[in-house]
Amino acid sequence: MAYSEKVVDHFNNPRNVGSLPKQDPTVGTGLVGAPECGDVMKLQVKVNPETGVIDEAKFKTFGCGSAIASSSLATEWLKGKTVDQALAIKNTDIVAELALPPVKIHCSVLAEDAIKAAIADYKKKQQAGQ
Amino acid sequence: MLKFPIYFDNHATSPVDPRVLEAMLPYFTERFGNAASRNHKYGWEAEEAVEQARKQIADLIGASPKEIVFTSGATESDNLAIRGAAYMYREKGDHIITAVTEHKAVIDTCKRLEKEGFRVTYLPVKKDGLVDLGQLRAAITEKTVLITIMTANNEIGVLQPIAEIGAIAKEKGVLFHTDAVQAVGKVPFDVNALNVHMASITAHKMYGPKGIGALYVRRRNPRVLLTPIIEGGGHERGMRSGTLNVPGIVGFGKAAEICRLEMAAESVRMQALRDRLNRKLHERLDELYINGSMDHRLPGNLNISFAYVEGESLLMGINDVAVSSGSACTSASLEPSYVLKALGAGDELAHSSIRFGLGRFNTEEEVDYVADKLVSVVSKLREMSPLYEMVKDGVDLSKMQWSAH
Fold first, then answer.
1. Is the peptide bond before B5 cis (omega within 30 degrees of 0)?
2. pLDDT tens digits, one per residue of B285-307
3. Does B332 contact chain A (CB < 8 Å)?
4. Residues B142-168: tens digit of each pLDDT
5. Residue B402 touches partner A, C-beta closer than 8 Å
């Protein structure tokens, strides 16, 4: 299987690998996928509560090269976006940017799910804090 | 000097040995005759070459040359053995026994026979990949006509207890076929010592050319008859019609002869390389799981799950090494290796597995390079793996609620 140049680049030089403190009220964590399916993504965002802008995004992914590239790209796109802008990111945007073949579309779906899960977690924490 | 990509996928296919190629070449050009041409020298010399190869192959497995039926490869051999015996002995019975870890050429042939009204028992395997002889014995009924169990598995390299299965088959009066593709030429294999009635073999797994295989079909004690699946000019004792692939057969024969003469020394060298690779990985990486028995295994095979790292990403990281993975992502299907699943280790370990198949032309230098590369790529991917992080934080992954998709 041949990978697109962009997938190879994200795989070899993944952006924003790492973890943010899970307990921090300004951090939202999304964990999606399942080990038996062959991919698990953990995506975290740190949001500035004053502006609603995502200051930091980190990921860790167990999965194929396309799954790693999809989550790496997602963290790049998330930084600097507001929470609402982040929710507008669609899996098809990721497919287009990385030129993912049909068998790898589920990787982009997982990345979109991870973004939504991370933001939902952040919002839940904010509501709980109020 | 290392040549890239390093080839560690000899279970898929092996390069043709230069000595084999040299033996084949004249049979493409000056000795191009049809082995079935009885009226001239071209035919005679082709036939003579075929008969010499038949003997070379028979000698490797302790058979008589007349018991070797040439086919296009092991898939055809498996089809001919299983369907040929099922149709021939249908009046005697309609039940076949095989195992869940067999090659698709066997499994799918059995499935087809099920659609045609035969009954098939698919034996499970134990954690080490071997069939349970008690379960095999218990599965045999009065209607059982055929047992088909492979000698060595193509993914995990485990060697089934073929001699014991042969003895049970003999005692019960049931035919025994074995797909011996991965084993012949790598480990001792004698059709009489093992009580085998039929055995599938192929040239391209033993440094011969692709497109030529054989089925050993026993001629005495008992004489096995098969209904042909390809009809035509009645070649190969009527069991497999079609003009013989003379250059391929010559190469197959030469490859078999080399294996017979060099197998003892070569298997020691293969096992030393395999053990070196295994040791180097275990010295520097934790949480490695070997799939299949280490005691009953092909000398050149290693199948390891690198826990918390997905197989395809691992292959991508070691893209200057040619190996294969049991992960679903490497294939069009979304299911991971059915062989690894059958061991009961869990799908996540199947997704994390790599199969190494060492062969005649691999070197210690290559093993060292591959080991170093794997250690660095696995370490990098584990740094990136949420599963590895969770386990290091003391999370029990099996107790997590995952969102399966």
1. yes
2. 999 999 999 999 999 999 999 99
3. yes
4. 999 999 999 999 999 999 999 999 999
5. yes
